[in-house]
């Protein structure tokens, strides 16, 4: 009798834990839909397609989430907003169209949730965080040529070094100093690099949502 009671207690404990961790969140968040305004014209989030969608697959395949997060914490949970990583904390609605969600594992590098936002300012430099495609290409090819002391590995295998035939390519990297290639050659991104950069530049989770307030960095 005591064994059956103990077994029932253990089973009930695990059942309640599973219900609370799996069923309840799915009931609360499983049917979230994009937010729309009264006119139905402003919809957020939107489902990225084309090259940016392909770039997200490359982002996952290359393991970028091992060193970068895509989750901005509110001011009560950290200093992400003060760092210029976002104007508000990220919430469940931000991830409706991301499967699997790449929240990230560690922050060896900065959070990327709003890498494509043109207004956010990096608190460490006072400059806008947004970078153009040329910067991203150079950073992927040789991280320390753009960020001194960066621990990020080179993704040079996403680029092709080739001899210039005729006119120099518009996509050719502008490499200088120790990172420059010999005269007559150029380094250009391949299709995977272009897709990855398109994805990074599409990241913007600053849209105002009814369930979370916008926050201003501390001054």
Question: Keywords, please?
Answer:
single chain; 219 residues; mainly alpha; Cytochrome Bc1 Complex, Chain D, domain 2; two-stranded antiparallel ribbon; 4 helices; 4 strands; 28% helix; elongated
CATH third-tier fold name: Cytochrome Bc1 Complex, Chain D, domain 2
The CATH superfamily is identified as: Cytochrome c-like domain
Strand order, largest beta sheet? 1-2
The major beta sheet can be summarized as: 2 strands, antiparallel
Strand/helix succession:
HEEHHEEH
Got a strand count? 4
CATH architect. name:
Orthogonal Bundle
The share of residues in helices is 25-40%
Shape, per Cα inertia axes: elongated
Write structural notes for this entry.
This protein has one domain: Cytochrome Bc1 Complex, Chain D, domain 2 (Orthogonal Bundle), CATH 1.10.760.10. β1 and β2 form a beta hairpin. The protein is mainly α. It contains four helices and four strands; from the N terminus they run αββααββα. It is elongated, with a radius of gyration of 22 Å. The mean pLDDT is 88. It is 28% helix and 6% strand. The strands form two sheets. A two-stranded antiparallel sheet has the order 1-2. The chain has a two-stranded antiparallel ribbon with strand order 3-4.
List the helices and strands and how they pair.
Blueprint: H1 2-29, E1 35-36, E2 43-44, H2 50-61, H3 133-141, E3 159-163, E4 185-189, H4 191-202
Antiparallel strand pairs: 1-2, 3-4
Q: What does this entry show, briefly?
A:
The chain is mostly helical and 219 residues long. It is built from four helices and four strands, in the order αββααββα. The longest helix has 28 residues, at 2-29.
């Amino acid at each position: 009798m005591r064994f059956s009671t103990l077994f029932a207690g253990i089973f009930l404990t695990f059942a309640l834990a599973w219900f609370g961790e799996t069923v309840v969140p799915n009931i609360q968040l499983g049917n979230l839909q994009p937010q729309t305004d009264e006119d139905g014209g402003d919809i957020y989030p939107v489902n990225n397609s084309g090259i940016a969608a392909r770039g997200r697959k490359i982002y996952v395949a290359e393991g970028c989430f091992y060193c970068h997060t895509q989750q901005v914490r509110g001011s009560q949970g950290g200093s992400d907003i003060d760092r210029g990583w976002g104007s508000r904390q990220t919430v469940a609605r931000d991830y409706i169209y991301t499967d699997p969600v790449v929240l990230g594992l560690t922050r060896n590098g900065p959070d990327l949730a709003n890498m494509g936002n043109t207004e956010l300012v990096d608190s460490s430099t006072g400059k806008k965080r947004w970078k153009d495609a040329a910067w991203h290409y150079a950073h992927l090819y040789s991280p320390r040529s753009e960020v001194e002391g960066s621990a990020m590995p080179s993704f040079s295998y996403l680029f092709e070094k080739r001899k210039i035939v005729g006119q120099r390519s518009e996509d050719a990297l502008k490499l200088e100093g120790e990172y420059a290639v010999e005269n007559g050659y150029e380094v250009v991104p391949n299709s995977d690099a272009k897709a990855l950069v398109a994805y990074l530049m599409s990241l913007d989770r600053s849209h105002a949502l009814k369930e979370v307030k916008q926050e201003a960095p501390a001054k």
